Amino acid sequence: MNVEIQLPEKVKFIIDTIMEAGCEAYAVGGCIRDFILGREAADWDITTSASPLLVKELFRHTIDTGIKHGTVTVMLGKEGFEVTTYRVDGRYEDGRHPESVTFTASLKEDLKRRDFTINAMAYNEQSGLVDEFGGLKDIENKVIRCVGDAGERFTEDALRMMRAVRFSAQLGYEIEEKTSAAIRKLSERLRLISAERIAVELTKLAVSPHPEKLRTAWETGITKIILPEFDRCMETEQNNPHHCYNVGEHILRSMQEIRPERVLRLAMLFHDIGKPETLTEGPDGTSHFHGHPAVSEEITRRVLQRLKFDNHTIQTVTRLVLYHDYDILSEAKYVRRAVRKAGEDIFPLLLEVKYADMMAQSTYLRPEKEERLLAVGEIYKQVRREGQCLSLKNLAVTGKDLIDRAGMQPGPALGETLGKLLDMVIENPDLNRKETLLAIAAAESAGGK
User: Fold this and answer.
1) How far apart are CA 372 and CA 378, in angstroms?
2) What pTM value is reported for the model?
3) What percent of the chain has pLDDT over 70?
4) Which residue, among 302, 266, 295, has the nearest Cα to 279 in the 3D structure?
5) What do you get for the CA distance between the two ends of the chain, in Å?
6) Strand partners, 62
7) CA dist., res. 107 & res. 117, Å (int)
8) Which of 5, 219, 285, 400 sits in a 20 to 30 Å window from 427, CA-based?
9) What confidence category does residue 149 fall into, taking pLDDT thresholds of 50, 70 and 90?
10) Cα separation, 100 vs 425, whole angstroms
11) How many Cβ atoms from other residues are within 10 Å of residue 179's Cβ?
12) In Å, how far from its chain's centre is CA 71?
């Protein structure tokens, strides 16, 4: 198959400049894969027989981003392009990085060290596509396959096992049998990988077009190492009319039912993670999971902290998990209460979470559930349109007002009073007038004395 790749002008300039100096240069890796797939390449990387020092001489502005491993970033305007000298990696003692590298004059040797065949193709306009390991055929067959021996590739860099599943999820490909078998055999080596790198790959998988490929991570033993809580879910049945899948399968399907936004997909991944710990059976054998949202919230916080997620993500995801099963009646005051309880900032996301959760359940009472949830959404929109108070920021009085005009003192009691006033306004929006609220606060303050 003749493949012609349209290289960006700046990439062509770098390649041409190096080739005019008598060396080889190719665009390489993911950018070639993405072009063939009709996807926009995030980065254009270049591999070359030129030494790092020569690359630095050929271009006016370079940065030594990884010169020890042969990588120099060439800056053209505000854009940076990584240019890496052909290399052969030394031993991988930490299961992630080579102890040393040896530069080579052979493009094939350089491509041989890469992870998967679809990422081991190179291109320049003079030679065309260089595909030594069948990457193009694997793209046609929609297969993820290691370059060379899969066991060696995963022993060199254990994170490649997660990358295999992640690429499978992003592209909708199957993992080739020997590659899959090697993951099963070597998944324990993921313990060598930092929590931060695990979190990055898990997130990319979660927001991919096929988050259900997390099932592949479970089948190959990856989640046993990085997310054992999910394994328990895959082993927990739900004998309940509202459900038709075990807990793990329900989670996977709920992830498919929500848009590919990071916080939302993570919320679906964890929303029922506490069900195995709360499982009880009624006399008729029906499964119950009383209190599972609170337990799920605790587990979610623990896992996200373990994986070194940022605090904002942890706080947002845990709140969505905690309130995902909160019952909201389709009346304005109940919707306002729910917004107050969960938080105005996440309530629209919570509605999405609740809808995805419902769509991943059985069809039992589905029309009624859907009608009520849609009604809650419409009431929420109306409440917002009317500018009804839903949080302290919309309350007609501030702490300063209570100090200046209601005779209150700074301190915990001030915050408690503001909270009580907000609760009153949530119940009766007509109370949200400054003079009305000041009078209530003054009376309460006087009564307290």
Assistant:
1) 10
2) 0.93
3) 96
4) 295
5) 88
6) 74
7) 14
8) 400
9) very high
10) 66
11) 24
12) 28
Residues 166 and 174 sit within 8 Å (Cβ to Cβ)? no
Beta bridge partners of 84: 47, 71
- pLDDT tens track for 17-44: 999 999 999 999 999 999 999 999 889 9
Q: Tens of pLDDT along 329-364?
A: 999 999 999 999 999 999 999 999 999 999 999 999
Query: What is the tens place of the pLDDT at every residue in 172-215?
Result: 999 999 999 999 999 999 999 999 999 999 999 999 999 999 99
The whole-chain average pLDDT of the chain stands at 95
Tell the burial category of 133 from Cβ atoms under 10 Å away from its Cβ (0-12, 13-18, 19+).
buried
Instruction: State how far the Cα of 178 lies from the Cα of 156, in Å rounded to an integer.
Output: 16
Please report, for residues 94, 256, 343, 383, the alpha-carbon distance to residue 323 in angstroms, rounded to integers and kept in the order given: 41, 20, 10, 20
pLDDT over 60 at 77, yes or no: yes
d(Cα 265, Cα 275) in Å, to the nearest integer? Answer: 18
